[in-house]
Every structure is written in C-alpha cells, then in structure tokens.
Design goal:
single chain; 283 residues; alpha+beta; 4-stranded antiparallel beta sheet; 8 strands
C-alpha cells in the first residue's frame, strides 16, 4: 500500500475553477447593468435636450408673433392718425327672422260640359296646417353667430377707415403734384445767368450786372473775405464769408434775390461769379 501515489491536483482544480468563474459572471452582470444605466441616462439627457429645444423654438415663435402683432397695431394707429373723422353711424339692429310657411297646394278643377258629367259639389277649402314649433336654439351656435357678426362689423369698420385713409393720401398726392407743377413753372420763368468777376483789394469798384462790387478784406489763410455790394449808392456789406459759400442777398424791395459765390480766395484777390435773373441783366 505504501507504493500507491495519488495526484492531489486532480482534487484541487475543481474548487479553484469554480472560484475563478464566479467573479467573471459577476463582472459580466455588472457590465450589463452599467451599460443599461448609461443608456437610460443618455435617453433622459436626449429627452430633456429635445424638450428644451422645443420650448426655445416655441418661445421664439411666440416672440415673433408678438412683434408682428405690435407692428400691425402701430400701423393701425398711424392710419387712424391720418384718417379723416368718420361720423358715428347708428348701430344696425338685426331684424327678427320671419319664418315663411308655404300654403298647401290647392286642388285643380276641370270644367266639363253638363251633358258629359253631372255637377259636382265644391269641396270645402283645406284648413291651413299649424305652423311647426321653432327648434330650440343651441347656445354654442348663438354665441358663434354673435362672434361672427362682431368680427364682420369690425372688418367693415377697418375697411371704411382704410378707404378714408386712401382717399386722404390720394388728395395729398394731387396737392403735391399741383405744387410741383407750380414750382417747375416758377423755375422755368425765373431763368438766371452767372456773371464772373475778379476783385482786387483796394478802393476800386467793379460793376457786375445790376450792382457794383468792392473787395474790403481777404484772409488767405482761413479762406475768408468781405465784399461791399453797391446798389444806387447804397452799400450792402457781405462780411466774413468763406470759399464756395452761396451768399444770397436782395438789393431792393420786391426784387429777385442775387447769389454771390467766391471760387478762389488769393492773397489780395478773389475770383467768383454773381448769379442774376436773365431779365435783370444789363447789356
């Protein structure tokens, strides 16, 4: 019996294999649970993000609708400011509906010769059938009818106001066209001509058109000058004027205005032109 040997590893491997397989199965279960939890959390996050996007889109649409409503209200207020006052019209009272009951058809009689048919007694007239009782009015239908009537009246009033505004705008356009034609006619009648001149600083007077010009002072650095305009021995001083400034002045009552423009300001000299009406130009 001492020569028999047993392999102890055969008996020791089975428990060790069972111990190694148990942690592996537990890890797989934990992995499955972790994946399921991650999927659930991801679904929750995706759902919340979708709801947030939908709420943001709805808010943006509501703000856009509010902006459009405010713009429409402003336009209506502007139209009401420009429209003419409309006389208050008497409210229209709806007449009660009248139910027409058609009379029953009357019998048609034929008249034949006495030898052919014996006389027949005239039948008594048929009595009129009683009028059917009106059906009960549904409250919802009555409310919808009143709302439709109110909307129709509101649209009719808005249409009347718009028609008044369109009439006012058309009248204003006609007045503007007439004013423009009058201005164009006036401009065509008052033709002007430019007379050039060169003035030296000193006491020399140079006649230009209907007036006489004399240069009083020149500031070449700041491009300013002063000129005295003589008309009928009376001086109109144009003081401290700048280069390319259109100086408009009147020499006499009820006369057309004259325009003086200096195009060059030198050290002791200025160069420019004087615009005068064509009918006032001297030969």
């Amino acid at each position: 019996m001492s020569g028999i040997e047993f392999d102890r590893q055969i008996f020791a491997t089975a428990p060790e294999k069972q111990q190694t397989q148990a942690p592996k199965a537990m890890g797989a279960v934990l992995l499955i649970l972790a994946l399921g939890l991650a999927g659930f959390v991801g679904y929750k996050i995706f759902t919340q993000a979708s709801q947030a996007n939908a709420i943001a889109a709805a808010k943006a649409q509501v703000e856009q609708l509010q902006q459009q409503l405010a713009d429409s209200q402003k336009r209506v207020e502007e139209l009401e400011k420009h429209r003419k006052p409309v006389r208050a019209e008497a409210p229209v009272v709806a007449e009660p509906a009248v139910v027409k009951i058609s009379a029953p058809a009357r019998p048609v009689y034929r008249i034949a010769a006495a030898s052919a048919l014996p006389p027949q007694p005239k039948p008594a007239p048929a009595t009129a059938a009683p009028a059917p009782a009106p059906a009960a009015v549904n409250p919802n239908t009555a409310a919808m009818q009143s709302e439709l009537t109110a909307n129709h009246e509101a649209w009719q009033a808005t249409t009347d106001r718009l028609a008044d505004v369109v009439g006012v705008v058309g009248q204003q356009q006609n007045e503007l066209s007439e004013t423009r034609e009058a201005v164009n006619q006036l401009l065509s009648q008052t033709r002007r001509q430019a007379l050039s001149f060169e003035l030296q600083r000193g006491n020399n007077r140079i006649p230009v058109g209907p007036v006489t010009l004399q240069l009083k002072s020149v500031d070449h650095k700041s491009q300013r000058y002063s000129v005295c305009v003589y008309f009928e021995d009376r001086c109109i001083e144009l003081k401290d004027r700048v280069l390319n400034e259109v100086v408009v002045f009147v020499v006499a009552k009820n006369s057309a205005p004259l325009e003086l423009v200096a195009t060059k300001v030198l050290r002791d000299q200025i160069v420019g032109y004087l615009e005068v009406p064509a009918e006032k130009q001297q030969p």
